[in-house]
């Protein structure tokens, strides 16, 4: 099986996400026949629209229910509202569609070890599907990953390594590992087979509702799911199966500096901690997010944690669906834009990406785990200490001087947050933006020195 760039024609046999020549998404070879194979399991019923992989691993993923709203549609005045409940998948999330394809391909190609960057759901799916094929899985997660998801992954046989502060950090770290080892990169956001798995959501919506969908609302983490559903509809449209592609409404957490800055929505930025599952600051599919929004005349909707938890409560108490917070963000976005970007006469589908048991800790606000240390060095701390030693550094110089391994994008996010909190300030000098500690930042640096001294005693 080859992976092909539809823009410049580049081909490669390994599952590389982007073309090294033009940076376009690579897509695997596959058929285009709309035929449902009832004899197959899971998403392999769409095998004529999927890559031809010799081994077909499945736990019965996909074909999740489209549930008609009994409360929100009425209270929002919507003509039609359905929830595509991906929490019904074998491990409780939409990621199972991806794991079915990726583990099948890895086994077919002879790999024994898979690695992935994840904040939980992708790792759990991968571990479950890999277990059926006898494959070893190592998952790398951020430090703030849900403890319940870590336990889930370990229970399924995965080795779990906590690394970095954000998904951006973990994603970069895993890419470096794969470059130097004979392992299979099963990170959803780095493997084009993920798109093939998730595009089947679009197929299933079409099977149930036909062309009778005006808008699809979904959470935006990396942008992968948004692009995949669009890609699925685009294939149906190009093959004259559907007459139109629904508008796609993406919902982000208000802490997402990357997307909100890119779209000129910085007035919605907040200082809240990101919701797990939505914690990419600079999504790997940023270019595709913009493409989908423009192509479908969709919008990006920022919501707060309060909006999200309220939406989760409404779904549980009035729709009977317990959904994880990242999934509830889509409902929060729907509530926010109904009567505005979404007209009440429209027919809407909301993608519920995961079951509430996958993120219950966030609802309860319970302590994730006991800390064995009373202080640890995070990136913001390192930046403050560095600027105390060397004032007037630009972003790239700060990144090069940090002891912590993070991406350049993550450093700029930390700088943005520190500046907003008044810890640092910046000014343009000689065509470069240089960063300095404010009086507040200098005081924090002094306190950090005192803490270091106490800990060394």
Short summary of the structure?
It contains 17 helices and 16 strands. The chain is of the alpha/beta class and 457 residues long. Helix 8 links the parallel strand 10 and strand 11.
Furnish the topology, listing elements before pairings.
Elements: E1 3-5, E2 11-12, E3 26-28, E4 66-68, H1 72-76, E5 80-85, H2 95-108, E6 113-117, H3 121-133, E7 136-141, H4 147-155, E8 159-162, H5 167-180, E9 184-185, H6 193-198, H7 200-209, E10 215-219, H8 224-238, E11 247-253, H9 257-262, H10 286-296, E12 300-303, H11 305-319, H12 325-337, E13 347-352, H13 360-364, H14 379-389, E14 393-394, H15 395-401, H16 408-420, E15 424-429, E16 432-437, H17 439-456
Parallel strand pairs: 5-13, 6-7, 6-9, 7-8, 10-11, 10-13, 11-12
Antiparallel strand pairs: 1-2, 1-3, 4-5, 14-16, 15-16
Helix pairs in contact: 2-3, 3-4, 7-8, 11-12, 14-17, 15-16
What would you say this structure looks like, in words?
By secondary structure, the protein is α/β, with parallel strands linked by helices. Among the domains are: 66-92 and 195-364, Rossmann fold; 379-456, Winged helix-like DNA-binding domain superfamily/Winged helix DNA-binding domain (Arc Repressor Mutant, subunit A, Orthogonal Bundle), CATH 1.10.10. It has helices spanning 72-76, 95-108, 121-133, 147-155, 167-180, 193-198, 200-209, 224-238, 257-262, 286-296, 305-319, 325-337, 360-364, 379-389, 395-401, 408-420, 439-456, and strands at residues 3-5, 11-12, 26-28, 66-68, 80-85, 113-117, 136-141, 159-162, 184-185, 215-219, 247-253, 300-303, 347-352, 393-394, 424-429, 432-437. It has a six-stranded mixed sheet with strand order 4-5-13-10-11-12, with helices on both faces. A hairpin with a 5-residue loop joins β1 (3-5) and β2. α2 packs parallel to α3 and α15 (395-401) packs across α16. The longest helix has 18 residues, at 439-456. It is globular and about 65 Å long. The termini are far apart.
């Amino acid at each position: 099986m080859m992976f092909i760039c539809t823009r410049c024609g580049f081909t490669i046999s390994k599952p590389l996400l982007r073309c090294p020549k033009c940076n376009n998404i690579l897509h695997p070879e596959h058929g285009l026949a709309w035929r449902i194979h009832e004899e197959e399991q899971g998403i392999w019923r769409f095998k004529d629209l999927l890559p031809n992989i010799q081994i077909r691993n499945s736990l019965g993923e996909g074909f999740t229910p489209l549930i008609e709203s009994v409360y929100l549609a009425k209270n929002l005045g919507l003509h039609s509202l359905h929830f595509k409940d991906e929490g019904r998948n074998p491990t409780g999330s939409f990621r199972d569609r991806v794991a079915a394809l990726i583990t099948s391909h890895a086994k077919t190609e002879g790999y024994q070890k898979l690695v992935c960057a994840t904040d939980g759901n992708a790792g759990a799916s991968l571990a479950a599907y890999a277990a059926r094929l006898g494959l070893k899985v190592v998952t790398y997660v951020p430090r703030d990953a849900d403890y319940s998801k870590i336990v889930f992954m370990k229970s399924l046989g995965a080795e779990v390594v906590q690394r970095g502060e954000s998904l951006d950090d973990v994603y970069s770290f895993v890419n470096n590992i794969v470059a130097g080892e004979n392992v299979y990169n099963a990170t959803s956001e780095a493997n084009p087979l993920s798109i093939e798995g998730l595009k089947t959501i679009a197929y299933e919506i079409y099977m149930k509702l036909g062309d009778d969908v005006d808008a699809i609302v979904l959470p935006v983490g990396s942008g992968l799911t948004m692009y995949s559903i669009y890609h699925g509809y685009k294939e149906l449209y190009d093959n004259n199966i559907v007459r139109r592609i629904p508008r796609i409404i993406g919902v982000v957490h208000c802490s997402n500096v990357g997307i909100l800055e890119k779209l000129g929505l910085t007035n919605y930025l907040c200082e809240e901690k990101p919701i797990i599952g939505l914690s990419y600051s600079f999504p790997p599919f940023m270019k595709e997010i913009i493409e989908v929004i423009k192509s479908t005349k969709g919008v990006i909707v920022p919501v707060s944690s309060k909006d999200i938890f309220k939406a989760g409560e409404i779904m549980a108490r009035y729709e009977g669906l317990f959904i994880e917070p990242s999934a509830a963000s889509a409902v929060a976005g729907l509530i926010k834009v109904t009567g505005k970007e979404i007209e009440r006469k429209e027919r809407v589908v909301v993608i519920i990406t995961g079951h509430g048991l996958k993120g219950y800790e966030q609802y309860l606000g319970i302590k994730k785990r006991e800390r064995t240390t009373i202080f640890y060095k995070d990136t913001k701390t390192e930046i403050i200490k560095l600027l105390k030693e060397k004032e007037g550094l630009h972003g790239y110089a700060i990144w090069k001087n940090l002891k912590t391994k993070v991406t350049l994008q993550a450093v700029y996010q930390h700088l943005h947050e520190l500046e907003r909190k008044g810890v640092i300030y910046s000014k343009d000098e000689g065509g470069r933006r240089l960063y300095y500690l404010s009086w507040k930042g200098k005081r924090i640096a002094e306190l950090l020195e005192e803490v270091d001294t106490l800990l060394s005693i």
